[in-house]
Amino acid sequence: MGVMVPCSEILARAKIENADIVGLSGLITPSLEEMAHVAREMQRDPHFRMLKIPLLIGGATTSRAHTAVKIAHNYDGPVVYVPDASRSVSVAQSLLTPESRDKYVDDIQADYARIREQHANKKALPILPLAAARANKAKLAFAPVRPKFIGRREFKNVDLGLIAKYIDWGPFFQTWDLAGPYPAILTDAVVGEAASRVFEEGQALLKKVIDGRWLSANGVIALLPANSVNDDDIEIYTDETRSQVAFTYYGLRQQGVKPLVDGVQRPNQCLADFIAPKASGVADYIGLFAVTAGLGIEKYEKRFEDAHDDYSSIMLKSLADRLAEAFAEYLHERVRTDLWGYAAQEQLSNADMIAERYAGIRPAPGYPACPEHTVKADMFKVLQAGEIGMRLTESYAMFPGAAVSGFYFAHPEAKYFVVGKIGLDQLDDMAARRGVGKDELERWLAPNLS
């Protein structure tokens, strides 16, 4: 469910149950720091240190490089990155089979040593002072389109068959460690046969999900007045009077030195750049959304679990994730063409939408343009997400897990970007703007600190 379990509880359970392996799964960025802490605690504890109990690292936010550089060196026992759940069985077998364990661990440690060396030899990109980055912000003109309504709207029990038409199948194959673009992957000389088999089985299960109404898809949006303030922040208002702030989104600005492209200086971007400044007097707008296609999944997960059918369980979760992303795509199209209507004449194919050829963007907290998660608490409050069966865990992961939430930006020049590394001056500045402790903020922004 994405709850961040305290390190002491994880290790206590492992000792009580005499665990052969400890596994950690990271859904959102703060869990990366917690994983390193667990590894350090395992090294301190004689039980784990002497038995060299393996520590498996996985989840959406993790990577082989992060495991090698940030986690593995904290513990003398085997630390192994597992790219997806389908690989966990083979990894566990290699670690628990005496004949294969030593060579398997030696190969991983050699690989991680090589990754750490490569990382150490990388040249850090220069970072601009925050004031200089702000001076190099995007200079945009604003002519906002007023949404057709101001406020909140729910979408309950949306037809899964309709949503399925918007599925991006590319990430589906990554679940099974199959690399290649869809649909070309189906005829790939190396993985085509396996990809075709998995795709066929996925389609068959998807048909059961749709025909049997295994899952429910609910969503909610809010279209609200907004203006940017303090260079990097966005005030979101409760109504057109703009007299009451529902909440403020505190944005992060790129601080990396930007190269010239065809003689033009690229800007240091922040999401606030795409909303008209309050001082301009221009009345601008923003959207919020939250969708899930995972309601009701527990019943079928248990059915597969009771049948020891891990494959079908993983397949179902993967399909639920695809449906949630497809729901976000479908709802964004409706917002662009109707509910907000700033692109009323749009006519895009599903391939065009997957390629992000639409006007505006829908960045999600935790992703490169807005990597910090805590804003979801404000978003869920305004959206009243509990009314559609969604909530946040204590670590700001969404429940159900097959869910997407984010913002809608309508500016025609709004593009997705990567904030990347930021300086300590931006950390200090944001802590002051938000009125929060620097240590707390550092925990949430750790992956972005240079």
SSE order, as H and E? HEHHEHEHHHEHHHEEEEEEHHHHEEEHH
Residue-averaged pLDDT, rounded? 91
Structural class: alpha+beta
State the oligomer: single chain
Strands, count: 13
| Largest sheet data | 6 strands, antiparallel
Q: Which blocks of ≥5 consecutive residues have pLDDT under 50?
A: none
- CATH-defined fold name of the largest domain: Cobalamin-dependent Methionine Synthase, domain 1
Question: Architecture of the largest domain, according to CATH?
Answer: Roll
CATH class of the largest domain: Alpha Beta
Q: Radius of gyration, rounded?
A: 23 Å
Distance between the termini: 31 Å
SS field, number of helical segments:
16
The structural domain count equals 2
What does this structure look like?
The longest helix is centred in the C-terminal third of the chain and has 30 residues, at 310-339. The protein is of the alpha+beta class and 450 residues long. It has two domains: 7-121, Cobalamin-binding domain (Rossmann fold, 3-Layer(aba) Sandwich); 130-448, Cobalamin-dependent Methionine Synthase, domain 1 (Roll), CATH 3.10.196.10. The model has no long low-confidence stretch (mean pLDDT 91). The chain has helices spanning 7-16, 30-44, 46-51, 64-71, 88-96, 98-121, 130-135, 160-164, 170-174, 192-211, 297-306, 310-339, 350-354, 375-383, 424-434, 438-445; strands at residues 22-25, 55-58, 79-81, 151-155, 216-229, 233-237, 245-250, 260-261, 264-265, 284-295, 391-392, 398-399, 403-408. It is globular. The strands form four sheets. Strands 4, 5, 6, 7, 10 and 13 form a six-stranded antiparallel β-sheet that branches. The protein has a three-stranded parallel β-sheet with strand order 1-2-3. A two-stranded antiparallel sheet has the order 8-9.
